[in-house]
Structure of Molybdopterin molybdenumtransferase:
Amino acid sequence: MAELQSVERALEALLKDVKAGDVERIDCEAAAGRVLAEPVTARLDVPPADNSAMDGYALRHVDAGQWLPISQRIVAGHAPESLTPGTCVRIFTGGEIPPGADTVVMQERVEARVEAQDAQAHIPGDITLGDNVRRRGRDVEAGTPLLEAGTRLEAAALGHLAGQGITQVDVYRRPRVALLSTGDEIVDPSQSLAPGQIHNSNRPMLSRLLERFGAELVMREHVPDDFATTQRLLREAAERADIIITTGGVSVGEEDHVKHALESLGQLDLWQLAMRPGKPLALGRVGEARLVGLPGNPVSCFVGAWVYLRPLIGAFLACPRMATLPRLWARAAFTTHTQARRHYMRVRLEFTPEGVVAHAFADQNSAVLSSCLEADALAVVPEHTTLNEGGRVECLWLTD
């Protein structure tokens, strides 16, 4: 029996010599989910001037504790006049602090009155210098690093760019992926099933995950059990894609068209891994394209996508946060025992005052896709381990 290889060794082989793709400049409005190729430096202070953190009254702190005339009214977006000493100004959230003022008191603590058309406000004496003033550059200072290369542009990062008036950014080109489903037994969901056939659940599942990971899906094909057709589709995939992903049909000891076609076109290494699910894995090259052959069982595909495809796409995007999944420790709400293979169990995390609890789905078989429906983590149980209920288990959080 061939020696089982570790997940870490397979990842090392998978990621060897991977280089980031080309760089392209795109509009920020189309940049959601993309990865920065160049660092961005702040152009502007944010906020651009001292402003009020709330609705209230701006004044000199030394004038607190008395009635003050209200000398002006300031709303956000309008430049103020200098504060007349011995007065206060009515100011609203986001309004620019007038020159001469140094403190804002919230309106709920102020008594206002109008006498003979003169508005006045009584300012309490127990206020702190600088209260409720958001200082210029508190969030971002011009000339400082705004975003690092390798940053994935999600909501906050896009907001940061917009706040600087930046409309275009340099990003890495998304890796192009060809997804090939193999075997005559696999048919499209729109087709009726003949005896021995099953619908292709892996293709839509992997398509969505690849999209989430940041790849561009350029080819989705069914590969029948025919050598010439298999060879042609693999050659076409290599011409169009950076990564070829196959599901099913490539496993140690199998004598099928996919294996022979791959060997005729490029390099193929077959692995048996000390993991469950997902024992078989194929890694190789077809021309310049990298190939990853996942097992046909849907749960093996699901787990393999998170463990192998996510870091591979992250390497093409030079995105450090995608190199590994976030890890956390949880209390197991289940009991299990492993033998020679590390088990990646589908679990639902519960966050309680006492800590995180991992609830395992009852049926962990690699063909039971329903175990992935509400799973938000993979509980990693090492080889030759008995994990009892209440024990600590490390979990991989399934997040982009």
